[in-house]
Amino acid sequence: MYADKIKDFKIKKDAVILAIESSCDETAAAVIKGGRKILSSKILSSCAEHVKFGGVVPEIASRAHTTAISLVVEDAVKSAGLTLADIDAVAVTYGAGLLGALLVGVSYAKTLAYSLSIPLIPVSHIRGHLSASYLENESLQPPFISLLASGGHTAIIYVKSYSEYEILGSTLDDAVGEAFDKVARVLGLSYPGGPNVERLAESGENAVKLPKMLKGEGGYNFSYSGLKTAVINYIHGKEQKGEEYSRADVACSFQHAAVDILVEKVIEACKEKGVYVVTAGGGVVANGFLRRGLEEQCKQNKIILHLPPKWLCTDNAAMIGAEGYIQYLNGNFADIDLNAKARVELK
Ligand code: KG4
Ligand code: ZN
Questions:
Q1: Can you tell me which atom of ligand 1 is nearest the CA of 176?
Q2: Same fold, 2-130+314-329 and 141-311
Q3: Residue range 173-209, pLDDT digits in tens
Q4: Predicted confidence band of residue 217 (pLDDT cuts 50, 70, 90)
Q5: Which residue's CA is minimally distant from atom 10 of ligand 1?
Q6: Which atom of ligand 1 is nearest to the CA of 153?
Q7: Contact assessment for residue 76 and residue 90, using Cβ atoms and an 8 Å cutoff
Q8: Residue 176 contacts residue 149 (beta carbons within 8 Å)
């Protein structure tokens, strides 16, 4: 039995983990050594196939994963200069994400773990984003305050130890990435919205008055639905009256409103908890305006900031390997009946 073989598996500190990620439109595989060193990382995106639909089409994403997965995994192992015999464990995103897409990665990972008789590590995509900061960064140790800002989640988290998290606040409605995507749509920008809003904002001014969210009274919670509606109402109002408006100014003003509050709350959390180290993860952390805001405010407040490079903020498998290593050290292995889950708790 697979479970019996894995039960007494000997944990190695410098374990080589093959990580697989297929929760959305990226088929990704990476090989990580000792939890922090990236030996290889490969990402094949089906993004271009979704553009004409204005968002990810689950069926198209699943089919793309099916054709890409073995190529991407083989490429990752080969680029690491290894063979499958050198892999100590397989980590895989089991949730959150598109069920059909996740199932491709989970099935592939199960087959590999079973045939190689090595542990199968179930990894939460959300925790993967938070663990991206550990990669190629030997000095980072908990405790720290982490900002999670992706297409599905927005939260400020007090990371007390490698596996102990306290959620200080999260979004009450839309995630910040979701708000970027929806605003992109009303501005006539194509999918993926976030980077396109950022690009348009560069030529605009922060000149459109938009509501600043939950300032002071909301604790560490966020609400992006009101901000998104204010942008939609502004555009519709201008169009109905036949008045000219600057799309770039709308993008810039929205970006300010969406991002400033995140930076402000992160700094507040550091002061309240007396923790002066900050990390961040999730696709929105690839946003240059947010990165500069965090850099400036952390510097002013003598807070150490560890931002992962942009490519480790958006979806990738290296972050799944980093979080997988933490689970590996805890002996958190799955049996061969591991299932994919569309939703997982933030914790
Ligand atoms: O982490 P991620 O790749 O996938 C999820 O786990 O959700 O995040 C995707 C989100 C999308 O909403 C996308 O528009 C946003 O991150 N995003 C950005 C930028 N790059 C990606 N938002 C603002 N500025 C960016 N440069
Ligand atoms: Zn993600």
A1: 12
A2: yes
A3: 999 999 999 999 999 999 889 999 999 999 999 999 9
A4: low
A5: 151
A6: 7
A7: no
A8: yes
Domain ranges, ordered by start, for the chain: 2-130+314-329, 141-311
How many Cβ atoms sit within 10 Å of the Cβ of residue 223? 18
Nearest C-alpha neighbor of 43 from the set 340, 311, 336:
311
Q: Which pair of structure tokens corresponds to residue 293? A: 């805001």
Neighbouring C-beta atoms of residue 115, cutoff 10 Å: 10
> For residue range 291-344, what is the model confidence (pLDDT) as tens digits?
999 999 999 999 999 999 999 999 999 999 999 999 999 999 999 999 999 999
Residue 144 parent element (H or E): strand 144-149
CB 172 within 8 A of CB 219: no
Backbone CA torsion sign across 91, 97, 101, 106: positive
* Residue showing tokens 């998104």: 228
Domain 2-130+314-329 has CATH 1.10.150.130: no
Q: Which fold has domain 141-311?
A: Nucleotidyltransferase; domain 5 (3.30.420)
**C-alpha dihedral, 135 to 136 to 140 to 142, nearest 10°:** 20
The contacts of residue 104 (CB under 8 Å, 6+ apart) are: 22, 27, 62, 65, 66, 69
- Determine the residue of 180, 181, 189, 200 to mutate for testing ligand 1's pocket, defined as the one with the most ligand atoms within 8 A of the Cβ atom: 180
What's the CA gap between 296 and 82, in Å, rounded? 41
Banded model confidence at residue 222, pLDDT cuts 50, 70, 90: confident
**Paired tokens of 150:** 């992706």
Phi, psi values for residue 291, rounded to 5°: -60, -45
